[in-house]
Amino acid sequence: MIYKISAVSREEKRGEKIRKEGKIPAIVYGVGGKPISLSLEKTEFLKIFSLAGEASLIDLSVDGADGGKVLVQDIQRDPVTDRIIHVDLRRIDMDKPLTAMVALRFINEAPVIKEKGGILVHNVEQVEVKCLPKDLVSHIEIDLSALKAYSDIIRVENLKLPAGVEVLNPRAGIILVKAVPALSEEEIKKMEEQNKEADVSKIETAGKKKEEETVEGEAEGVKEKKEEEKK
Protein backbone atom coordinates (compact mmCIF):
# COMPACT_ATOMS: atom_id res chain seq x y z
CA MET A 1 0.00 0.00 0.00
CA ILE A 2 1.24 3.50 -0.85
CA TYR A 3 1.03 6.21 1.81
CA LYS A 4 1.34 9.90 0.97
CA ILE A 5 1.48 13.03 3.08
CA SER A 6 1.87 16.71 2.26
CA ALA A 7 3.81 19.26 4.31
CA VAL A 8 4.60 22.97 4.20
CA SER A 9 8.08 24.27 5.04
CA ARG A 10 8.33 26.79 7.87
CA GLU A 11 11.12 29.08 9.04
CA GLU A 12 10.08 31.55 11.72
CA LYS A 13 6.89 30.19 13.24
CA ARG A 14 7.37 28.59 16.65
CA GLY A 15 5.92 25.17 17.38
CA GLU A 16 3.25 26.47 19.76
CA LYS A 17 1.94 28.88 17.14
CA ILE A 18 1.73 26.02 14.62
CA ARG A 19 -0.22 23.93 17.12
CA LYS A 20 -2.66 26.77 17.79
CA GLU A 21 -3.41 26.76 14.08
CA GLY A 22 -4.48 23.11 14.39
CA LYS A 23 -1.34 21.77 12.75
CA ILE A 24 1.64 19.72 13.90
CA PRO A 25 5.22 21.04 13.79
CA ALA A 26 7.68 18.54 12.29
CA ILE A 27 11.17 18.14 10.91
CA VAL A 28 12.57 15.96 8.13
CA TYR A 29 16.24 14.97 8.00
CA GLY A 30 18.66 12.30 6.80
CA VAL A 31 20.25 10.97 3.56
CA GLY A 32 22.74 13.80 3.43
CA GLY A 33 20.09 16.50 2.99
CA LYS A 34 19.74 19.44 5.34
CA PRO A 35 17.02 19.29 8.01
CA ILE A 36 13.83 21.11 7.04
CA SER A 37 11.26 22.38 9.53
CA LEU A 38 7.74 21.48 8.44
CA SER A 39 4.11 21.98 9.25
CA LEU A 40 1.74 19.00 8.90
CA GLU A 41 -2.02 19.01 8.64
CA LYS A 42 -3.10 17.35 11.88
CA THR A 43 -6.06 15.37 10.49
CA GLU A 44 -4.09 14.11 7.49
CA PHE A 45 -1.09 13.04 9.58
CA LEU A 46 -3.18 11.22 12.20
CA LYS A 47 -4.97 9.31 9.45
CA ILE A 48 -1.75 8.30 7.67
CA PHE A 49 0.05 7.44 10.91
CA SER A 50 -2.82 5.21 12.06
CA LEU A 51 -2.36 3.20 8.85
CA ALA A 52 1.38 3.38 8.23
CA GLY A 53 2.74 3.48 11.77
CA GLU A 54 6.52 3.69 12.20
CA ALA A 55 7.44 0.83 9.88
CA SER A 56 5.93 1.81 6.54
CA LEU A 57 7.45 4.10 3.92
CA ILE A 58 5.59 7.34 3.28
CA ASP A 59 5.88 9.51 0.16
CA LEU A 60 6.48 13.05 1.41
CA SER A 61 5.55 16.19 -0.50
CA VAL A 62 7.05 19.51 0.66
CA ASP A 63 5.53 22.71 -0.73
CA GLY A 64 4.14 20.67 -3.60
CA ALA A 65 7.52 19.16 -4.55
CA ASP A 66 8.73 15.58 -4.09
CA GLY A 67 10.33 15.25 -0.65
CA GLY A 68 11.33 11.61 -1.06
CA LYS A 69 10.37 8.59 0.96
CA VAL A 70 10.37 8.90 4.76
CA LEU A 71 9.69 6.96 7.93
CA VAL A 72 8.09 8.37 11.06
CA GLN A 73 11.22 8.35 13.22
CA ASP A 74 9.86 9.83 16.45
CA ILE A 75 6.62 11.14 17.93
CA GLN A 76 6.62 13.59 20.84
CA ARG A 77 3.49 13.79 22.97
CA ASP A 78 2.22 16.13 25.64
CA PRO A 79 2.73 14.33 28.99
CA VAL A 80 -0.66 15.50 30.26
CA THR A 81 -3.00 15.36 27.25
CA ASP A 82 -1.05 12.75 25.22
CA ARG A 83 -1.65 14.79 22.06
CA ILE A 84 1.09 14.80 19.42
CA ILE A 85 3.17 17.97 19.70
CA HIS A 86 6.04 17.21 17.28
CA VAL A 87 6.99 14.69 14.60
CA ASP A 88 10.41 13.61 13.31
CA LEU A 89 10.55 12.25 9.75
CA ARG A 90 13.64 10.42 8.46
CA ARG A 91 14.53 10.42 4.76
CA ILE A 92 15.27 6.97 3.37
CA ASP A 93 17.85 5.97 0.77
CA MET A 94 16.15 3.18 -1.18
CA ASP A 95 19.52 1.65 -2.12
CA LYS A 96 20.84 1.22 1.42
CA PRO A 97 19.73 -1.09 4.27
CA LEU A 98 17.85 0.58 7.10
CA THR A 99 16.87 -0.30 10.65
CA ALA A 100 13.33 0.10 11.96
CA MET A 101 11.05 -1.06 14.76
CA VAL A 102 8.38 -3.47 13.52
CA ALA A 103 5.32 -4.50 15.53
CA LEU A 104 4.53 -8.11 16.36
CA ARG A 105 1.01 -9.27 15.55
CA PHE A 106 -0.37 -12.37 17.26
CA ILE A 107 -2.71 -14.49 15.15
CA ASN A 108 -4.87 -17.58 15.77
CA GLU A 109 -5.54 -19.22 19.12
CA ALA A 110 -3.20 -21.24 21.29
CA PRO A 111 -4.58 -24.85 21.48
CA VAL A 112 -3.26 -25.33 25.03
CA ILE A 113 -5.17 -22.28 26.26
CA LYS A 114 -8.34 -23.41 24.52
CA GLU A 115 -8.15 -26.95 25.92
CA LYS A 116 -6.61 -26.47 29.37
CA GLY A 117 -7.00 -22.77 30.14
CA GLY A 118 -4.27 -20.44 31.32
CA ILE A 119 -2.82 -17.20 30.05
CA LEU A 120 -0.42 -16.02 27.37
CA VAL A 121 2.74 -14.32 28.58
CA HIS A 122 4.57 -11.91 26.28
CA ASN A 123 6.61 -8.80 27.03
CA VAL A 124 7.93 -8.00 23.56
CA GLU A 125 5.61 -5.89 21.41
CA GLN A 126 8.03 -5.03 18.60
CA VAL A 127 11.43 -5.98 17.23
CA GLU A 128 14.22 -4.02 15.58
CA VAL A 129 14.89 -5.20 12.03
CA LYS A 130 17.41 -4.52 9.28
CA CYS A 131 16.55 -4.72 5.59
CA LEU A 132 16.42 -2.82 2.34
CA PRO A 133 13.55 -0.28 2.25
CA LYS A 134 11.70 -2.32 -0.38
CA ASP A 135 11.59 -5.31 2.00
CA LEU A 136 10.30 -3.40 5.03
CA VAL A 137 7.02 -4.69 6.48
CA SER A 138 4.56 -2.98 8.83
CA HIS A 139 4.33 -6.01 11.15
CA ILE A 140 5.50 -9.58 11.70
CA GLU A 141 2.94 -12.27 12.52
CA ILE A 142 3.32 -14.81 15.31
CA ASP A 143 1.13 -17.90 14.94
CA LEU A 144 -0.13 -18.91 18.39
CA SER A 145 -1.39 -22.25 17.07
CA ALA A 146 2.17 -23.51 17.67
CA LEU A 147 1.51 -23.48 21.42
CA LYS A 148 0.02 -26.96 21.86
CA ALA A 149 1.47 -27.54 25.35
CA TYR A 150 2.69 -25.39 28.24
CA SER A 151 6.23 -26.47 27.38
CA ASP A 152 5.97 -24.91 23.90
CA ILE A 153 7.75 -21.58 23.54
CA ILE A 154 8.06 -19.14 20.65
CA ARG A 155 11.42 -17.37 20.56
CA VAL A 156 12.86 -14.73 18.25
CA GLU A 157 14.63 -17.46 16.29
CA ASN A 158 11.23 -19.06 15.55
CA LEU A 159 9.86 -16.00 13.73
CA LYS A 160 8.91 -16.52 10.09
CA LEU A 161 10.57 -13.49 8.56
CA PRO A 162 9.90 -12.07 5.10
CA ALA A 163 12.75 -12.43 2.59
CA GLY A 164 15.53 -9.94 3.18
CA VAL A 165 14.49 -9.08 6.75
CA GLU A 166 16.84 -9.69 9.70
CA VAL A 167 16.01 -9.18 13.39
CA LEU A 168 18.72 -7.24 15.22
CA ASN A 169 17.09 -6.95 18.62
CA PRO A 170 16.15 -8.79 20.79
CA ARG A 171 18.60 -11.64 20.29
CA ALA A 172 17.58 -15.03 18.89
CA GLY A 173 17.05 -16.90 22.18
CA ILE A 174 14.71 -14.37 23.77
CA ILE A 175 11.21 -15.69 24.51
CA LEU A 176 8.46 -13.83 22.68
CA VAL A 177 5.41 -15.69 23.93
CA LYS A 178 4.45 -18.76 25.93
CA ALA A 179 1.38 -20.18 27.65
CA VAL A 180 1.28 -20.75 31.40
CA PRO A 181 -1.37 -22.55 33.49
CA ALA A 182 -3.82 -20.45 35.45
CA LEU A 183 -3.05 -20.20 39.18
CA SER A 184 -5.03 -22.47 41.50
CA GLU A 185 -6.94 -21.04 44.48
CA GLU A 186 -4.26 -22.45 46.77
CA GLU A 187 -1.47 -20.72 44.81
CA ILE A 188 -3.37 -17.43 44.79
CA LYS A 189 -3.92 -17.68 48.56
CA LYS A 190 -0.22 -18.41 49.10
CA MET A 191 0.77 -15.36 47.01
CA GLU A 192 -1.61 -13.16 49.01
CA GLU A 193 -0.09 -14.41 52.29
CA GLN A 194 3.42 -13.74 51.00
CA ASN A 195 2.40 -10.21 49.99
CA LYS A 196 0.91 -9.60 53.45
CA GLU A 197 4.10 -10.82 55.13
CA ALA A 198 6.14 -8.55 52.85
CA ASP A 199 3.93 -5.55 53.75
CA VAL A 200 4.23 -6.27 57.48
CA SER A 201 8.00 -6.55 57.13
CA LYS A 202 8.10 -3.17 55.38
CA ILE A 203 6.04 -1.59 58.15
CA GLU A 204 8.27 -3.05 60.87
CA THR A 205 11.41 -1.89 59.05
CA ALA A 206 9.98 1.59 58.55
CA GLY A 207 8.97 1.75 62.24
CA LYS A 208 12.41 0.66 63.39
CA LYS A 209 14.08 3.20 61.13
CA LYS A 210 11.86 5.97 62.45
CA GLU A 211 12.66 4.96 66.04
CA GLU A 212 16.39 5.01 65.29
CA GLU A 213 16.09 8.45 63.71
CA THR A 214 14.23 9.72 66.79
CA VAL A 215 16.93 8.40 69.14
CA GLU A 216 19.66 9.91 66.99
CA GLY A 217 17.80 13.22 66.95
CA GLU A 218 17.44 13.24 70.73
CA ALA A 219 21.13 12.43 71.15
CA GLU A 220 22.07 15.23 68.81
CA GLY A 221 19.81 17.60 70.75
CA VAL A 222 21.47 16.68 74.05
CA LYS A 223 24.90 17.22 72.50
CA GLU A 224 23.93 20.66 71.21
CA LYS A 225 22.47 21.63 74.61
CA LYS A 226 25.68 20.64 76.39
CA GLU A 227 27.77 22.66 73.97
CA GLU A 228 25.46 25.63 74.47
CA GLU A 229 25.83 25.37 78.26
CA LYS A 230 29.61 25.44 77.92
CA LYS A 231 29.49 28.80 76.16
Total helical segments: 4
Structural class, from secondary structure content?
alpha+beta
Biggest β-sheet: strands ordered side by side in the sheet:
1-3-2-6-5-4
Tell me which CATH architecture of the largest domain applies here.
Beta Barrel
- Cα Rg: 28 Å
Distance between the termini: 87 Å
Residue share in helices?
25-40%
The CATH homologous superfamily of the largest domain is termed Ribosomal Protein L25, Chain P
What do the pLDDT scores average to? Answer: 85
CATH topology title of the largest domain: Ribosomal Protein L25, Chain P
Spans of 5+ residues with little confidence (pLDDT < 50)? 225-231
Largest sheet data: 6 strands, mixed, barrel
Helix and strand element order: EHEEHEEEEHEEEEEEH
- Note the beta-strand portion: 35-45%
CATH classification class of the largest domain:
Mainly Beta
Give the CA-based shape. globular
Could you explain how this protein is built, in words?
With 231 residues, the chain is an alpha+beta fold. It has helices spanning 15-20, 42-52, 111-116, 185-230; strands at 3-9, 23-30, 33-41, 58-62, 65-77, 84-91, 98-107, 119-121, 126-131, 139-143, 153-155, 166-169, 175-180. The chain folds into 3 domains: 3-93, Ribosomal Protein L25, Chain P; 99-180, RNA Polymerase Alpha Subunit, Chain A, domain 2 (Beta Complex), CATH 2.170.120; 186-231. Strand 5 (65-77) and strand 6 (84-91) form a beta hairpin. Residues 225-231 have low confidence and may be disordered.
